[in-house]
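It is worth pausing here to work through a concrete case rather than discussing structure prediction in the abstract. The textbook approach is simple: state the sequence, then state the predicted structure, then interpret. We follow exactly that order.
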Amino acid sequence: MSGDGRASVRSPPRYRTFNGMRDGTSMTAPQSGIPFTLVSRADQIFPVLTPAQLARVEPHGTRRETEAGEQLSRPGVRTSAFFVVVRGRIEVFRHTDDAGDQLIASFGPGQFNGEVGILSGLPGFTGVRVVEPGAVIEVDRERVLGIIQTDGELSEVLMRAFILRRVEMIRQGVGDVVVVGSRHSAGTLRVREFLTRNGHPYVSIDLERDRGAQELLDRFQVTEADIPVVVCRGELVLRNPTNQEIADCLGYNDAIDRTKLRDLVIVGAGPAGLAAAVYAASEGLDVLVIEAMAPGGQAGSSSRIENYLGFPSGISGEELAARAHTQAQKFGAEVLIARHAVELDCDTVPYQIKVDDGQRLDARALVIASGAEYRKLSIPELARYEGNGVYYAASFIESQLCNDEEVIVVGGGNSAGQAAVFLAQTARKVHVLVRSSGLAASMSRYLIRRIEEHPAIELRTCTEVVGLAGEGRLESVTLRDNNTGALDQRPIRHVFSMTGAVPKTAWLNGCVALDDIGFIKTGADLSRDELTAARWSLRRQPHPLETSLPGVFAVGDVRSGSVKRVASAVGEGSVSIASVHQVLAE
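Step two, the predicted structure:
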């Protein structure tokens, strides 16, 4: 497609055009016959800057003359600049071994390339070259961020285009990653979830369904024992890689300087951590976020959140997390992906946070938003089936694994209710299991009503899973009625466990006061004895969200007494920054 919303007329023989946007009413582009969506949607993805807007961009960049065939950037190279066309035309492409160069988009005067990867300096999926000579304004990444942060009108135009372009790339699988695996492999599920939740486009090849899978494995000399196999950037072949290895291959953290002293380090990029990052960065603080998996935390796996203010029709946890992540990056916050905080050194000031690769990060203040994870079922054979029949998230990926089958959801909280309603769209039957006598004490009323009224959902109270069985993958489940003690074995192959919460506080190394079950105590909940034991040296009392360690705050699910809701977590994350400013000024 051209940058003005029309399909590009120029289409060399070995090009496959990137088209078919989904949202809105299907229409036909003038002069092309290629279907696309409403002009308003196309105009948002491929806007044309006005002369006044161009004039405001130019001081931030360098004007350069261009020649036909000139390559402005190459695929796989860190996204360090974007180009605004003054005269002539440029095109964005990617190279594939099987089909040559694939045309992604073509841009004319007043238009610009780029997508959200430029905000974090990630290596690009695509290259840019000149097809008609003219002139462009080249703007480096730092100055792009400057435009976004200081020019409200241009910020709206650029951010909307960047985000919508990434959405289309994900939808159409235009990326630089191929995942070869099996729908029955826990490793394959983990890799797909990691890429999906980090918003990275990829192509998935299923060994059981795709006839060309073996050919691909032979090409890279790998066996089925190596699955999942991740072909990264068309060159590097990773055999059953960790999330950290994938992140390193894709350059997720390459642009982050880990040696500098930060005003604020935030551990955890769930709703609380992302809210803290947005408010801190927007108010001028130098912010680094450490995230073990992907932005969104536990909430990021929610299929639909319907009681969050401002979204009357609901929003998926994944979409909410992606928006918040992009918003934090817009203001200059950096997010270290697929890295765990493993230790806090609280004897030094500034504080030092040790990361799982051995590096230490220095921080003047710290916000702990490491969250909590679901309690695991007390079944000896559980580990054999995790990711291969037992799941801790109910996203689109998991829902496709249990299409037209019976499933079990264990838990009585909102996350379990949302999962049950979501899975009921594709599953034949959803059994909701709770050990209590009902849901009223732990679940929102609107979810209880949906569960009660949905014909495919059955609530089973005073019931729990006591046994799992299967060769290689889960094949049957044993249930126990706690009122009668009766056992019931069912041929059910999918169990979604969403019970309770265990705080992620082991890495704190005894630096802050915890309650009896391991959640972090803050503010007025800290007793005089606890502050004395922690050697609290300040004349003032701790701020409301401050821990027993001055300048260290806890927000969201990891905090003792917190309300386990997304809105509450966002509120705590944002409110904590006011106290961070006060601490930094002391």
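Step three, interpretation. DSSP finds 16 helices and 28 strands in the chain. The chain has four domains: 27-172, 177-250, 262-371+504-585, 375-500.
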